[in-house]
Amino acid sequence: MLHGFFSQNLTAAKLVSFCAVSKNGDLLYAQLIFDHVRDPNRFMYNSLIRGYASSSEPTKSFLLFRRMIRTAISPNEFTLPFVLKACASTLKYMEAMLLRTQAIKLGIDSQICFQNALINVFVVCGLIELARKVFDEIPDRTLVSWNSMIGGYSKMDCSAEALLLFQEMRALDLVPDEFTFVNLLSVCSRKCDLDLGRLVHSHMEVYGTNTDLYLLNSLIDMYAKCGNLHSAQTIFNRITHKNVISWTSMVSAYAKNGLLEFAEKTFKEMPIKNVVSWNLMMSCYIENNQFREALNLFYAMCKSTVVPDEATLVNVLSACSQLGDLIEGKKTHSYICSNNVLPSITLYNSIMDMYAKCGPIETAMEIFFEIENKNLVSWNVIIGAHALHGRGIEAVNLFEKMQIDDGIKPDKITFTGLLSACSHSGLIEKGRYYFDQIYSTYRISHDIEHYACMVDMFGRGGLLNEAVKIIIEMPMRPDSVIWGALLGACRIHGNTEIARQVIKQVLELEPYSSGVYVLISNMYYEAQKWEDVKNIRKIMNYHGIKKGRAVSSIQSDGCGYEFMVDDKRHESSRDIYCMLDQLTDHLKSVGYYCSTQCIF
Asked: Alpha-carbon distance 108 to 476, whole Å?
């Protein structure tokens, strides 16, 4: 710039091209050079458009393309494919159609690079029929054309079409590459089609691509998702130089097949762990209701060199929500704020859900109002939060506000939260109204969760006959949750007549659930039906069913404690029980006596 070399477009063009396209280049520097050239030529435009199309700012490719047209520089067969790539990155279907029209005018619409790029746009936008039409119009298809189309069918879960194309490709003596097989394996994984997966694997053996590490990792994933853990393990053992993806795929394989111990063991054996590996193991713990283990793993991750990402934080917040651990939840929120993490809508929803489930719903509401572009999940979380806290009127108001202010249509989950809120607040008429509205107004079919809410609502309100009626009218078979809700209502209102009919249904579905037997036994005890109490005890003893010990938790001075009945593990347990005895004596002195209605 200082010595006037940019007056020579050849020098500037080469520099722009290197900075925009090379792995060691600098796109911002390429833009700076480009801006100092008085009359950039087509090669410079093409280089910079290509650079932005592959960057995190693909929309700048459109701006450059428009500027190029305004300066009367005609695009060529090298320009349009990269603008189409930007269209694919930003899902701009209409812009792609306009580019196709322009390509026809320029006579370059039949160029194979342009056609392949157009197929890719249509595939990414989910327009598989348009993509196939372009594919069929190509006289001399390249391997990229075939892979793009097979990949498109893979994304749309069209396994039959993908396989037919592959067979047609083989008939033409075209040799598939690793991308072909990865696309086919992806179809097998999503469809859990083991037979097709084995067929693809056999073709890999024939074409000699079975040594490619990327493909071998895909095979592990495919066999794991299809439930063939033995084959997944065999391929894993066959890999000489395993990478972090190989190890993570095997951890995922064990986790998907319910073998948490093997997943843990494999995870611990990993020589190198990345953030995906840590997140996967955390998710495994959460899916298996081992929330404390998930938090402990997070602490171990923080001691490593791996930096948590948004998925990590969502996992941690989920574990805190399930444990009701407000202290750790606040620490996680503080970590997000102190590390200048810009929360996505998903992370905002997780923070809000954590506060709602851990107690301070007002804080959850503050987070809710902070979210600028609330999505349906945001509204579902906050409506569900009010349901959890028995704030039915507020939940109803939010439901109406969601539609009026934000124009967001409710889904099945929205109505589950809304009906639950009506149930917990005794809003029976509101509940009836919204239950009817689900299909009549919103054309949403009723789920079993909606019926469960209605049974619970009628049961709480003492309308047991209506609860029975709605169960009889259900289009699906009632599950243990619905029968359990009705049985609980029978206990509250002392209706042993209906309870006897319900007990048989519940025990058929959950014959070894201690909670069910405890509920039945307590109900008979309260009704003073001593013979029935004895019979329930006999059944429990005969089947070896024992009541699970309940665990309570308390948070004090920034620490969490868990304890059970007659628990003496805490170092201060003697002082705690002494204080408890004093409180009991005080309550008795003012005329309060503990309820002894429940025998368990």
From this structure: 58
